[in-house]
Design brief:
A three-stranded antiparallel beta sheet has the order 1-3-2, covered by helices on one side. It contains 14 helices and three strands. A hairpin with a 2-residue loop joins β2 (278-280) and β3 (283-285). It is mainly α and 288 residues long. The protein has two domains: 1-221, Endonuclease III, domain 1 (Orthogonal Bundle), CATH 1.10.340; 230-285, Arc Repressor Mutant, subunit A (Orthogonal Bundle), CATH 1.10.10.
């Protein structure tokens, strides 16, 4: 494998974006919240929501004391609102089983609702300074190109962690920097559609570049269109409930003018099944 750690680290120290979760002392709770919010959501949308969230609930215990409805309401238009419920459930468990302190151990982090391989390792590495491979969509793309000679990464697999681990320095702090630098490179330079190879610090050792930028196909799952989708209907239902002056809205009145009544009803039912809303005596409301 190419020795990418040194040039990546030097590049990152000069070019890393100024992001809240990279500030010294940001804390494990802030890192955990930011990672929940950053799942499938752009950085520029996350930052104001993150700041508002942490101002309202600066610790897991603060969030755990709030009603789940408040978490869903505060989530606003970030999308994929189940993340708000999962984060609330994780906060309750952190309060009740871990003394209000976000765990450090990866396996313990994985036991929290909504925490997967990436988030668990991100907290352990970026909040606590431990050495683990951290692999997100951006770092997977860098690895696929620089190491594998592929134009796009394949579906996520456990081998991603092993490949990233082999690229990391043995020392904890330098390894954390390389993890962050690889993600940063994928987010800002080695992008999916328009990579800026002239600005890449590892272009000279990139297997994809050496192979003539061949198109090896794209096996990533495509995200379904949002406009007109059930996701859009679910979002509209939640917005109506967040904005409602009263605690609930009659199910027959909720989104009464939605163009597809069957889709609206399907959205209401699926939200109730997910625990994001409650249906009580013919009225819909955010969870209590």
């Amino acid at each position: 494998m190419p020795e990418i750690a040194a040039p990546l680290t030097a590049w990152y120290r000069r070019n890393a974006r100024d992001l809240p979760w990279r500030e010294p002392g940001f804390g494990a709770w802030g890192v955990l919240v930011s990672e929940f919010m950053l799942q499938q959501t752009p950085v520029n949308r996350v930052i104001p929501h993150l700041e508002a969230w942490l101002a309202r609930w600066p610790t897991p215990t603060d969030l755990a004391a709030a009603a789940p409805a408040e978490a869903v309401r505060q989530w606003a238009n970030l999308g994929y609102p189940r993340r708000a419920l999962w984060l609330h459930r994780a906060a309750v468990r952190i309060r009740d089983q871990h003394g209000g302190v976000v765990p450090r151990d990866v396996d313990t982090l994985l036991s929290l609702t909504g925490v997967g391989d990436y988030t668990a390792r991100a907290v352990a590495v970026f909040a606590y300074g431990d050495r683990h491979p951290v692999v997100d969509t951006n770092s997977r793309r860098v690895i696929a190109r620089a190491v594998g000679g592929q134009s796009q990464p394949g579906p996520p697999s456990r081998t991603d962690l092993a490949t990233m681990d082999a690229l990391l320095p043995r020392e904890h702090a330098p390894a954390a920097t390389v993890n962050a630098a690889t993600m940063e490179l994928g987010a800002t330079v080695c992008t999916a559609r328009a990579p800026r190879c002239d600005a890449c610090p590892i272009a000279h050792m990139c297997a994809w570049r050496a192979a003539g930028y061949r198109d090896t196909g794209d096996g990533r799952r495509k995200q379904a269109r949002y406009l007109g989708s059930d996701r859009q209907a679910r979002g509209a239902v939640l917005k109506a409930l967040r904005d409602a002056a009263s605690p609930g809205i009659g199910s027959d009145e909720l989104l009464a003018h939605w163009p597809d009544a069957l889709q609206r009803d399907r959205a209401i039912t699926s939200l109730a099944d997910d625990g994001l809303i409650e249906l009580v005596e013919g009225r819909a409301r955010l969870p209590h």
